[in-house]
């Protein structure tokens, strides 16, 4: 089976620091190669992969701002689609734009929908609903107007996350500094719990950072900026808990699975996919308010960190994700 994996070109595949879609595209690609499939990765030219690499964009447009994002995307997608006949299946991790080619090529297209940036993009998915195949990354993120061939949870490389049975006492916020991710709420939870808070992530909303995060820095709240893979593992593993007080219906939540792989429980607002990722009172706590989160912090000692690791390893491993995708491929191409 000849598979083309289409990754985004905003960041390198795999990303140096931020780039969740690129990370999953990489995990899929490397897992498929390990499983013995014939795989070509379409990504930026600086991508790191054991598959064949086909690239026309030198670097991610978020890392090289001299590029026009739309031009880069157009050249990247067309490069694959003009070679579509060379493959048995195209696995699209690039959102909705590649769907516009799906009726002018004969190769089937499977699209992993990594979340909906806006309801305004739904018409494209709806237009190609009967002609292509969709996978959701959680049951919570399914749109009722679309048909899905499967739900496949994001899979992580378990070996990249080290279990820590003896954490430090700090709480961790790990994510984009943006209202959706609840950085301000995490600060309030930590302050009310009288616990130290470390915050890591890219600043996606400068005004939000200035108004709701920066005034609290110093003392018990520390912001360290984005954290690469090695630092991420250390931060997550040493944390007493990950705070994830999201203000939107998150499709998956990579840092939630990553934390649990380190044995670290997660305190999250009960929205979106969180009930699928977290076992309440087993691998963390599903709460509905800052005050409930503060109560959960006081109960962290009731969580078995070994069970957090076991749960996440069973549900969110690269191997499980790849096996699930191979079953989907078989349904499509026989």
Mean pLDDT: 96
Largest sheet: 7 strands, parallel
The outline comes out as globular
Structural class: alpha/beta
User: How many individual helices?
Assistant: 11
Unreliable residue stretches: none
Number of domains: 2
Q: How many whole angstroms does the radius of gyration measure?
A: 20 Å
Described by its quaternary structure, the protein is: single chain
State the CATH topology of the largest domain: Rossmann fold
- In terms of DSSP E residues, the strand content is 15-25%
The CATH architecture of the largest domain: 3-Layer(aba) Sandwich
What's the β-strand tally?
A: 13
Q: Separation of termini? A: 10 Å
Trace the largest sheet across and list its strands.
3-2-1-4-5-6-7
Question: What share of the residues lie within helices?
Answer: 25-40%
Describe the protein's architecture and organization:
It is a single chain. With 334 residues, this protein is α/β, with parallel strands linked by helices. The protein has two domains: 2-155 and 317-333, 3-Layer(aba) Sandwich (Rossmann fold); 158-315, Glycogen Phosphorylase B (Rossmann fold, 3-Layer(aba) Sandwich), CATH 3.40.50.2000. 33% of the residues lie in helices and 15% in strands. The chain has eleven helices and 13 strands. Strands 3-2-1-4-5-6-7 form a seven-stranded parallel sheet, sandwiched between helices. Strands 10-9-8-11-12-13 form a six-stranded parallel sheet, sandwiched between helices. The radius of gyration is 20 Å and the shape is globular. The termini are close together. The mean pLDDT is 96.
């Amino acid at each position: 089976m000849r598979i083309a994996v289409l990754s985004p070109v905003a960041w390198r595949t795999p990303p140096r620091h931020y780039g969740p879609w690129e990370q999953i595209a990489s995990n899929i690609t490397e897992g498929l190669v390990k499983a013995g499939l014939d795989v070509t990765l379409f990504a930026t030219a600086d991508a790191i992969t054991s598959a064949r690499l086909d690239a026309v964009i030198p670097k991610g447009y978020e890392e090289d701002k001299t590029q026009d994002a739309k031009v880069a995307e157009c050249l990247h997608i067309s490069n694959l689609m003009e070679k579509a006949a060379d493959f048995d299946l195209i696995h699209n991790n690039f959102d909705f734009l590649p769907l516009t080619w799906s009726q002018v090529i004969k190769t089937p297209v499977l699209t992993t929908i990594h979340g909906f940036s806006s309801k305004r993009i739904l018409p494209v998915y709806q237009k190609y609903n009967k002609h292509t195949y969709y996978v959701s990354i959680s049951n919570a993120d399914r749109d009722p107007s679309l048909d899905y061939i499967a739900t496949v949870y994001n899979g992580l490389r378990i070996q990249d996350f080290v279990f820590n049975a003896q954490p430090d006492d700090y709480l961790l916020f790990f994510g984009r500094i943006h209202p959706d991710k609840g950085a301000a709420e995490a600060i309030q939870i930590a302050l009310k719990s009288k616990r130290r808070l470390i915050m890591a992530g890219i600043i996606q909303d400068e005004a939000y950072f200035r108004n709701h995060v920066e005034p609290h820095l110093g003392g018990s709240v520390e912001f360290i900026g984005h954290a690469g893979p090695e630092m991420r593992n250390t931060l997550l593993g040493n944390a007493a808990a990950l705070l994830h007080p999201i203000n939107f219906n998150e499709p998956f939540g990579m840092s939630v699975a990553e934390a649990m792989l380190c044995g670290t429980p997660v305190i999250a607002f009960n929205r979106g996919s969180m009930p699928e990722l977290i076992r309440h009172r087993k691998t963390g706590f599903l709460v509905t308010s800052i005050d409930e989160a503060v109560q959960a912090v006081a109960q962290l000692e009731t969580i078995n960190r070994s069970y957090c690791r076991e749960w996440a390893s069973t549900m969110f491993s690269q191997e499980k994700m790849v096996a699930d995708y191979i079953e989907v491929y078989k349904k499509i191409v026989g």
